[in-house]
């Protein structure tokens, strides 16, 4: 196996006095999709948000342990959080396009990071990102329409296009399909397959079939603990822990 | 679910005893339905009554103001036959400036003399103190009047004006009847009311001085209160840590918004006039004082508007690597702007109507010239209304109402602007 892209060592997260994540260690390599599964409130989203320091916006949150991106400690004082988030993009549960045009939604990231110097270059990035997000053919004639006027599934793909427009190394997805219908979900899953390899992808999902379909490795969280982490095929066919078995056979969750 | 990870499975299928289907046609059921409908109707009627009551009050206010104030924009004029025998030539009027030349040539005395000649002893009393100004303007427009006998319409004195509008004393009414019989009375739009400043004579007063004073005061208030209020709101919502100090600041700002305005006036008097020795009666000081009052309103409205921006937008911007300042200025502020602007205009409208604090800083002085700079002495519309309503002369009654109409139009324009801004910047989700 190649050197890991993300390495988390003994990570614990506290909200005030409550411990939401307890001593989690995990590796994610560049060319794989890792799924986090587990019942509601198990801390999988919290853990995902530590990977690009989105938990910084929660005043009471505190992170212990180390997380490395390409060997760099992302919680070190020298780490610039703005650059970190450009390198580790994120897609949220509820599609949240900016109330601006489709073009502006995608162009926003490259623009604030100064990734382009000419208008034509920006146009190319927007088109490329929308193409990779599988949205270009649907919106190419109405790039000036508001991003919020699209359907839910299109909005989520627009959010993915927005995330990949700044050319990140990792994409975090926090239950990206939970607000979408089955057809839109299938399109997002197809998209994840296409993006795999180019970006390391970590996806949190409630839907175990989805985890089985899109990921190579799966981590099962329960009550803030990482119960089991291994190849997706093993987790679903031959779980080692009793709790994993109970969860994937639908006995609780 | 700590030890018992697996919840108890439902044991057996011991259904509770079979219920019969509910009968919705019993008397009790029908009564419930009727009562529900009656409650709906009652609620709708009460709402409708409340709306009509407030519309009625508003209509009453507007109608009575228009009814009494409309005549304030109209003046009674007396036709004055006059032959100016002045020691100036038409070309001097043009060259030296009409004001100086004509006033210097004793035009006021000539007008009084003409009035006495036309309407007998006491004829000059029929005319407004400003009657000669009409003659001056007429000569300015047509210098040939200097050399011939002409008929010029001039403003009537206050008591004649009041009597002509049906509210005067018996003596004045008799004079009006005489003038009317002679065909010397006419009416015209009082343009000077819109272009002049305060005066001691009700036929010569104008609203422009107070209007300009109000405008300057509002500009000072807006220039101070808007940036301070918006930045305070942004900092408190987006940056400030949530602790006891910020709680204290929040409570203080809410209290500040509820402090009676007269107290702000005293504060302005003590600080701006007493300590900093800024000029009295000036729009600068009025604006500063009203800014103190308006700022908390803007902070509160701004914080609510900023709270209304969905957190998902902040997350979205942060996740593509926007810095906190970029999140605020690219996303939060533009989305909160309609709400902030609406709150600002409401605060400004309140400041525009404010009288008490301005009395304290000396803006109740009699100011006969419109201000040119924000440090010039000035008065504002509500104070002008207060001053005129206090006058003994009957002629000021309609002027007061007319000034109220001007103030209400100013307010209407401001609120209209607020609605325009809101619609212009509103984001459709």
Commentary on this structure:
Chain B: Pfam families: BPD_transp_1, DUF3333. Chain B: One of its GO terms (biological process) is phosphate ion transmembrane transport. Chain B: Belongs to the binding-protein-dependent transport system permease family. CysTW subfamily. The complex is a heterodimer of chains A (253) and B (429). Chain A contains ten helices and ten strands. Chain A has 253 residues and is an alpha/beta fold. Chain A has one domain: P-loop containing nucleotide triphosphate hydrolases (Rossmann fold, 3-Layer(aba) Sandwich), CATH 3.40.50.300. The longest helix of chain A is centred in the middle third of the chain and has 14 residues. The model of chain A has no long low-confidence stretch (mean pLDDT 90). In chain B, helix 9 packs antiparallel against helix 14 and helix 10 crosses helix 12. Chain B has 17 helices and three strands. The two termini of chain B are 39 Å apart. The mean pLDDT of chain B is 86.
């Amino acid at each position: 196996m190649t050197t890991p892209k993300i390495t988390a060592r003994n990570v614990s997260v506290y909200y005030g006095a409550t411990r939401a994540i307890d001593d989690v260690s995990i590796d994610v390599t560049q060319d794989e999709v890792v799924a986090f599964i587990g019942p509601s409130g198990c801390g999988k989203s919290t853990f995902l948000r530590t990977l690009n320091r989105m938990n910084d916006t929660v005043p009471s949150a505190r992170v212990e342990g180390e997380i490395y991106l390409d060997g760099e400690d992302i919680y070190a004082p020298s780490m610039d959080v703005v650059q970190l988030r450009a390198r580790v993009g994120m897609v949220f549960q509820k599609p949240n396009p900016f109330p601006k045009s489709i073009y502006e939604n995608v162009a926003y990231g490259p623009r604030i990071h100064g990734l382009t110097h000419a208008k034509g270059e920006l146009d190319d990035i927007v088109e490329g990102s929308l193409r990779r997000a599988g949205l270009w053919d649907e919106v190419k004639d109405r790039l000036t329409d508001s991003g919020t006027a699209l359907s839910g599934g299109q909005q989520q793909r627009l959010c993915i296009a927005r995330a990949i427009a700044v050319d990140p190394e990792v994409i975090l997805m926090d239950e990206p399909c939970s607000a979408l219908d089955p057809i839109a979900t299938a399109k997002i899953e197809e998209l994840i397959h296409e993006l795999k390899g180019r970006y390391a992808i970590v996806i949190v999902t409630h839907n175990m079939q989805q985890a089985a379909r899109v990921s190579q490795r799966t981590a099962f969280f329960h009550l803030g603990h990482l119960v089991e982490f291994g190849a997706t095929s093993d987790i679903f066919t031959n779980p080692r822990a009793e709790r994993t078995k109970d969860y994937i056979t639908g006995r609780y969750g | 679910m700590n030890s018992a990870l697996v919840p108890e499975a439902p044991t057996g299928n011991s259904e509770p005893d079979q219920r019969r289907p509910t009968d919705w046609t019993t008397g009790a059921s029908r009564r419930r339905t009727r009562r529900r409908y009656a409650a709906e109707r009652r609620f709708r009627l009460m709402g409708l009554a409340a709306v009509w009551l407030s519309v009625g009050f508003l209509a009453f206010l507007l109608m009575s103001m228009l009814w009494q104030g409309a005549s304030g924009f109209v003046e009674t004029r007396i036709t004055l036959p006059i032959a100016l025998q002045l020691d100036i030539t038409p070309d001097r009027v043009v060259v030296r400036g009409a004001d100086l030349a004509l006033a210097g040539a004793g035009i006021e005395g000539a007008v009084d003399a003409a009035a006495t000649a036309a309407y007998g002893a006491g004829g000059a009393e029929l005319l407004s103190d400003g009657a000669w100004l009409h003659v001056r303007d007429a000569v300015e427009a047509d210098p040939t009047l200097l050399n011939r006998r002409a008929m010029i319409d001039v403003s009537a004195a206050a008591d004649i004006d009041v009597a002509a509008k049906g509210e005067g004393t018996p003596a004045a009414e008799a004079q009006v009847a005489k003038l009317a019989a002679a065909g010397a009375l006419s009416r015209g739009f009082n343009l000077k009311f819109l272009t002049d400043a305060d005066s001691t004579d009700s036929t010569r007063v104008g609203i422009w001085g107070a209007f300009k004073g109000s405008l300057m005061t509002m500009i000072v208030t807006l220039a101070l209160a808007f940036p301070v209020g918006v930045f305070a709101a942004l900092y408190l919502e987006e940056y400030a840590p949530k602790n006891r100090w910020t709680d204290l600041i929040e409570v203080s700002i809410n209290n500040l918004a509820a402090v009676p305005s007269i107290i702000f006036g005293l504060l302005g008097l003590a600080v701006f006039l007493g300590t900093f020795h800024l000029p009295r009666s000036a729009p600068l000081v009025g604006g500063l004082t009203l800014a103190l009052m308006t700022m908390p309103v803007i902070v509160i409205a701004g914080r609510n508007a900023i709270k209304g921006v969905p957190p998902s937008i902040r997350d979205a911007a942060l996740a593509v690597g926007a810095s906190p300042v970029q999140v605020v200025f690219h996303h939060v502020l533009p989305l909160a702007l309609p709400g902030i602007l609406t709150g600002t205009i409401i605060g400004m409208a309140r400041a525009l109507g404010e009288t008490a604090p301005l009395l304290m800083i000396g803006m109740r002085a009699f100011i006969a010239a419109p201000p040119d700079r924000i440090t010039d002495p000035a008065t504002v519309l509500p104070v002008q209304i207060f001053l005129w309503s206090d006058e003994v002369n009957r002629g000021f009654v309609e002027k007061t109402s007319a000034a109220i109409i001007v103030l209400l139009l100013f307010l209407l324009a401001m609120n209209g602007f607020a609605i325009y801004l809101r619609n212009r910047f509103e984001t459709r989700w």
